[in-house]
Design goal:
The chain has a single domain, classed as Carbamate kinase (3-Layer(aba) Sandwich), CATH 3.40.1160. The protein has 6 helices and 7 strands. The relative contact order is 0.17. A hairpin with a 2-residue loop joins β6 and β7. It is an alpha/beta fold.
């Protein structure tokens, strides 16, 4: 069964770690996976543009989805064995798929179109949709062991909607920071 691995856009600033991670995922060292790209600097540009131009949160959400798609293409340029997919919940023999969330631009009833939802919550949404046994968030910062989803959100490591998405996801949630994997997170207290 395929796991979901969210690769934070902030890892673009750590090319050695990012290259090693993508190679490991493409090699299948962590099992079959669907990679969710973060928005990275392109999502930051959307935030700045929204302040300057005053467009709606719904428009910002759609542009942030585009930013994730752009990051997916950047990650594929680094590791060309990653297989692009618009619908990773469909059966595919590839070891490592990389998701472009373009299909969500039209909206989805389960996904609020606000900045409360970022690629972290979208990774949980995708993991639930796929029936993935685990959702791993690869971050540029470490999480303290044993934190639940609500504490991760309060600490700013994940978005505000993450605890709600975590409550509806029955699988394992973990954070891999530069210091290594964090023990399994408790979602019951989310």
């Amino acid at each position: 069964m395929r796991r979901v691995v969210k690769v934070g856009g902030s890892l673009l600033a750590d090319p050695g770690r990012l290259r090693d991670l993508l190679a490991a995922l493409a090699d299948g060292r962590h099992g079959p996976c669907a990679i969710v790209p973060g928005g990275g600097p392109d999502a930051d540009a959307v935030r700045a543009a929204q302040v300057a131009e005053g467009f709606s949160d719904a428009e910002a959400h759609r542009r942030a989805l585009d930013a994730m798609g752009h990051t997916a293409r950047r990650l594929r340029a680094i590791e060309d064995r990653l297989v692009p997919s618009l619908a990773p919940w469909e059966v595919d023999p590839a070891t490592a798929l990389i998701w472009d969330p373009a299909l969500l631009r039209a909206g989805h009833p389960d996904i609020p179109e606000t900045w409360d939802v970022t690629s972290d919550s979208l990774a949980l949404w995708l993991a639930a949709r796929m029936g993935a046994p685990a959702c791993i968030l690869v971050k540029s910062a470490d999480a303290a062991p044993g934190l639940d989803a609500a504490a991760l959100s309060r600490d700013g490591l994940v978005d505000a909607a993450f605890p709600a998405f975590a409550r509806s996801y029955p699988g394992i949630i973990a954070v891999w920071g530069p210091g290594g994997p964090v023990p399994v997170l408790s979602r019951r207290a989310a």
